[in-house]
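Entry:
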Amino acid sequence: MKSTSLISLHGGHSKQFCCHAEDNLEEIIQAYIKKGFKTVGITEHMPPVNNLFLYPDEAAKGLTAQDLYQQFARYVDEVNRLKSLYKSDIRIHLGMETETYTGYIPHVKQLIHEFKPDYIVGSVHHVDDVCFDYSKKEYDTAIHHCGSHDKMYMHYFDLQYDMIKNLRPFVVGHFDLIRIHDKNFEQRFLSPEIYEKIHRNLLLIKELDLVMDYNLRPLTRGEKQPYITPFLKIIKELGIKVVPGDDSHGKAQAGNHVPQAIQILEDLGFNTHWPKPRLLTLDTN
């Protein structure tokens, strides 16, 4: 694969399978093709382990964990249909984005066993079972629950470490998502206690030969830098693989900012001969 090949390994959320997304998945695939993508990973959220972990928009629609399980099964069928339909135009990889809350490990393993995704994206959207990324209100609730901003960051990176160790996701999703509603995140990352956990997690990612998600969704929201930007230098020094992810939630977002991201990675000396997504060794029994 040429170093300039367009790719995203995190995204493709659609209104068919995600309450806070737009457009049908086929329309999103067509958008990728139109923009010249030859490889894309579609990574819908896994269904929750129970009703306690519904997102607010899911609960507002009266959905249940069982409804979302059935919806995820339809998602898998649709991705496999689109794989076949558009195989001459684009290589589509069936992905699943994980959660990290009580009961997630056996649940993820069961979903892998049942649905056989091509790979998983390991993401953390909850701290101590409290969702923090859905809204500023939710974020503040998580801070209160943890006791302070810094403690929430430390809990987040501890949960992330356990998730990486237990699930070995091919892609580690938006590594520093915990900064999402924090204007002082750059200063907080410099805290010795927090940075020690960040560095520990990066060493584990390197040891397991995982891929980091150069997640571009902040740019779509009008922010200045993608996720993992503060750590690109040390990530490069450690020799960790990095692949762009548009984290798209509709056809208008499909592929956004990917060419610029690839140029940044090339300028920094990253290898942009992209690795093929795969499901890493994981005991699903």
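The chain has one domain: 7-268.
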